[in-house]
Amino acid sequence: MRNIIFFICCLVSFPIWAQSVEDNPEVRSWLDKMFQHLDKTKVPHGLLRDYAFELADLDI
Predict the structure, then answer these.
(1) Which of 1, 24, 32, 38 has the fewest Cβ atoms nearer than 10 Å?
(2) Using an 8 Å Cβ cutoff, are 49 and 58 in contact?
(3) What is the CA radius of gyration of the chain?
(4) Where is the signal peptide (predicted)?
(5) Alpha-carbon distance 31 to 3, whole Å?
């Protein structure tokens, strides 16, 4: 019975681990270097699609 409860708890908590964001400093430093000379005041709406990780749908 304990094994079944443990298994169910693991299955229920699995989606929590799936939602974590992977921190990738290599990619972030590469993007920082690429956009370091960009004048961010000339970007309309303050949105840089190429600078962000695609974690959300930006077309909303």
Answers:
(1) 1
(2) yes
(3) 19
(4) 1-18
(5) 46
